[in-house]
Inverse folding.
């Protein structure tokens, strides 16, 4: 049932959000020269997939988890996109392709071994990763692997249609800070 909601909302979001996507893409051309960011992430059943987002950091920034990146690498447009969570919009394509869900554990990088181990033990990779979820609502990021994995597992074990909509609503209402970057 949730997959049906994912497909419907991803299609609606991409269709209705097309003008916003185009504007951000054009602004991104002036901001970094290349507005789309692609990165290999760990998905369902530990299969890799290419996550797409709007670029929020300068193009030469090292490919590390956000909490390990320097805040000086975030562009002015990137700061706005992160605060409004508009940098996540292109991930609707990942949702439509079935690589992600709107709600699920945030997909991590392959070099985050501690997080991978914690999540693997708790069965977090049995579900599609998501754009938002319980950890994001609670401001838990990848800098605390054990807590993040436990929160992801809690979300998975209590997932329902009601919670799916709750996490989406709370994200739209501005709950959670998104991926933290050190200052």
């Amino acid at each position: 049932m949730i997959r049906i909601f994912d497909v419907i909302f991803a299609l609606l979001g991409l269709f209705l959000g097309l003008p916003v996507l185009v504007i951000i893409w054009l602004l991104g051309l002036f901001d970094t020269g290349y507005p789309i960011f692609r990165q290999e992430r760990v998905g369902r059943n530990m299969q890799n997939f290419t996550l797409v987002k709007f670029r929020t950091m300068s193009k030469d920034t090292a490919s590390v988890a956000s909490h390990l990146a320097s805040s000086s690498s975030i562009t002015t447009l990137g700061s706005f996109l992160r605060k409004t969570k508009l940098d996540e919009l292109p991930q609707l394509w990942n949702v439509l392709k079935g690589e992600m869900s709107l709600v699920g554990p945030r997909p991590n990088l392959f070099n985050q071994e501690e997080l991978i181990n914690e999540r693997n033990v708790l069965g977090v990779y049995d579900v599609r990763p998501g754009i938002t979820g319980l950890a994001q609502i609670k401001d838990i990021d990848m800098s605390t692997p054990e807590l993040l994995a436990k929160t992801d597992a809690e979300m998975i074990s209590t997932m329902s249609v009601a919670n799916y909509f709750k996490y989406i609503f709370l994200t739209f209402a501005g709950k959670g800070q998104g991926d933290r970057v050190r200052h």
In short: The two ends are 41 Å apart (CA to CA). The first strand starts at residue 36 and ends at 42.
